[in-house]
Amino acid sequence: MSINVTSPDPTGFDPDRLERLRQQMQADVDAARCDGVSILAGRAGNLVFSHSAGFARRDEGKAMQADSVCICFSSGKQFVNTLILSAVERGLLGFHQPVCEVLPEFANRGKEGITVAHLLTHTSGICTGLPPVAPEVMLSIEQLTAWAATSRPENAPGQRVCYSAIVGHAVLASLLLKVDGKGRNFATYLEEELFAPLGMNRTSLGVAERLRDEFNPLTTCYTRSGMFHEVEVQGVGAMTAVPGAEIPAGGYVTTAQDMYRFALMLSQGGEAGGTRILSPAMVEFAAENRTGDTPNDLLDYSLQMRRWSPWPGGIGLGFFVRVAGSITPGPLPNLGRPGTFGGWGSGTSCFWIDPSRELCFAMLTVGSMEDTEHIERTRRYSDALIASIVE
């Protein structure tokens, strides 16, 4: 699937207003708030904005480009979630289905009631932050799922909205591999079922051998610690680059172009470039807010650190969703219409789709930021893009 930039005028964008977004991107690089940033955005299937600023490797003077291969962290959760939605469409899994029906080892210690929907909406009660396990366990879907099967949940399923940073998606990956039954590892599963069909040829779980020479390692531009300490972020970044590493919650490398391909597929009802991944009905169903006005507990630290007011977590079946009437620091645009949905990765990335405007956005950065600063930046860039639409 090729990507060509069209003139912004026919799709209702003011070129002078789009320049404001370019200026914001460059200002963040100049102030060393990040090393580099690349953004692509489209409307009605036309790519109307493609711009990169700064460096993929600042120390080498290597420019950031739309095809620069970088870590995207948790934006990759939506790759897994999309394959779960596909498995539901094929009748292999059900949203209401208890995890222990597929993985019997989860029928203990209060986990019997955890369903596939609980995992997708981050209401399962499974370990929220980084799990207290050895690195080799973190890198292995099988070992991390086995650890989760023996652990006690933090709360009863459905009781709280609390983002599972790592563990929940190891369990989701295990569910997919179990019902697939073909003996594939998860990196191959992703490649064959999602990345290759969409032409996401510069995306992989872990750093695929074909991308090693082009991979730009994680750097950090932290001014403070928040959800994660800078050392934790650097550690997960280093683990992502270990040969054979499989961290389905966020151990991915990709490009802004490939993230745009993925967002475009969702914006077009599950199809892009002649390849259908999901039905329009499933995309619409998954993008409905399933957690109401309940805040995401994992972001409670921001209320004190940044003096912010609580805002709805807004989580659908695998996607973050713009909640009607809410004013948020991010990561989704305040100017996005209700029903805008997407995903974001710690300090590094974001994508979203505004269905009613036929608008999609993808952003990938180098120089990981503290998460409240990152989602604030993402919201700022996103609102600047939408404010450029004049018709």
Structural summary, described in words:
The chain is of the alpha+beta class. The protein folds into two domains: 9-75 and 201-386, Beta-lactamase (3-Layer(aba) Sandwich); 82-187, Methane Monooxygenase Hydroxylase, Chain G, domain 1. The chain has helices spanning 15-30, 77-89, 99-102, 116-120, 135-138, 141-150, 167-180, 186-195, 230-240, 256-267, 280-286, 301-305, 371-386; strands spanning 36-43, 46-57, 62-63, 70-71, 204-205, 252-254, 271-272, 275-276, 320-321, 341-345, 349-354, 359-366. It has a seven-stranded antiparallel beta sheet, sandwiched between helices. A three-stranded antiparallel beta sheet has the order 4-6-5. A two-stranded antiparallel sheet has the order 7-8. It is globular, with a radius of gyration of 19 Å.
Number of domains: 2
Cα end-to-end separation: 28 Å
- CATH topology of the largest domain, anyone? Beta-lactamase
Tally of strands: 12
Characterize the main sheet: 7 strands, antiparallel
Level of helix content? 25-40%
CATH superfamily of the largest domain: DD-peptidase/beta-lactamase superfamily
What is the architecture of the largest domain at the second tier of CATH? Answer: 3-Layer(aba) Sandwich
So what's the CATH class of the largest domain?
Alpha Beta
Overall structural class, as computed from helix and strand content, comes to alpha+beta
Strand fraction equals 5-15%
If you compute it from the alpha carbons, what radius of gyration comes out, rounded to the nearest whole angstrom? 19 Å
The geometry reads as: globular
Query: Can you count the helices?
Result: 13
Q: Uncertain regions: pLDDT < 50 for 5+ in a row?
A: none
Residue-averaged pLDDT:
94
Neighbour order of strands in the largest sheet: 3-2-1-12-11-10-9
